[in-house]
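Hello again,

I reread your note about wanting to compare the complex against the isolated chains. To keep things tidy I'm splitting this into two emails, and this first one only covers the full assembly. Below are the input lines as submitted, including protein chains and any nucleic acid or small-molecule components. They are followed by the predicted structure of everything together. The single-chain runs will come separately.
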Amino acid sequence: MTTDPADTVAAPAPAPTPPRRAPAGAAVLREDVTEAIREAVVEELAAVGFSRMSIEGIARRAGVGKTAVYRRWKSKLHLVLDLVGAFAEDGLPVPATGSLYGDVRALLEVMSHVLRHPVASAVIPDLLVEAARNPEIAEAVRGALLDGQHRMAQGIVGDAVARGELPEGIGPEHALDLLIGPLYWRQAVVRDAVTPAHLDTLAHQVVAGLKAGPGPA
Amino acid sequence: MTTDPADTVAAPAPAPTPPRRAPAGAAVLREDVTEAIREAVVEELAAVGFSRMSIEGIARRAGVGKTAVYRRWKSKLHLVLDLVGAFAEDGLPVPATGSLYGDVRALLEVMSHVLRHPVASAVIPDLLVEAARNPEIAEAVRGALLDGQHRMAQGIVGDAVARGELPEGIGPEHALDLLIGPLYWRQAVVRDAVTPAHLDTLAHQVVAGLKAGPGPA
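Full-complex prediction:
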């Protein structure tokens, strides 16, 4: 891999005991360039969509060379997965309102914002198409989209079990199906707007579903 | 529009009082050619996917000329929407088991088969990408995919209200979100297999959610 002076800075002198540092004298990728590329990707996605987006178009919009992009990500798919992963992590704090209904309602609020976000609405359908064609991509999409959501479902259900609001034995996958599925269906598939009243009803129904437990053995 | 003798048959002599008939002497599209094209589309979709599928490839596989395809559908999108619409209608009889749990469980069974079908898994993600880019396509996809499902949700909920199993006031859209959303999420987004035990639990939870009604006013 070659380095490009315009895209790299000299590594800073080592601090006394940094936890992780670049080798002294090594080229370090400039964070401002990385950030400009990320922003360009969001704009490109909104403008042309995933399938017509090119590394060249991203580089042009970011005002950098194509190598600056390839130095960081090996393909546009990897770039977008990285972006979606970061976005999914940022957007999904585990709610802790003190009640199951409150937590579910807060989760639905956050998720409905996430699903309305241009990155999500422009790129998730495309990623699912790629995932349908290629098991390796399917795995990467699962990791980027679902790991954070799993942790969140586990947090909400675990807290409710600890408070005595839910029976034990509900797997996080089951919980996530109920927590996310109906909202995803409405916003990403049917593409209907959701109102606060709709989210209230949905939270009420999801809580009732979760309280029903895993069902007769 | 020109007619092609190999693709048309003379209209039959009018029967005494047919409810709808072709004008005497008009060219009628041959049903066996239409069927061959439909089959070719299913095979093409499985082989190359929606975005790389071409009218030319479909015609070649069906052993017909491109005009035979264009005489029936104006684009590959219209062709696929027609196919999906027919498929969604066929696959979705309204269950009538005599109980809400039975109806919901039967619906989940049918839907999980539909979502595993190659046409559905190959083409729905692509249609949703098209829908995200183009409101006209979004409307057509809604019609093709959702009209039958709405009728079905209305049937199940209406029967349960009549039996006294459900309160009144649950809109079919809300019901559909709960009935389809969690399964769609698992099979089409997460792409995890579902087991009969999983469907049992999900039916149990969906029934509890529906019974909770629209929630506090």
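For quick reference: DSSP finds nine helices and two strands in chain B.

B.
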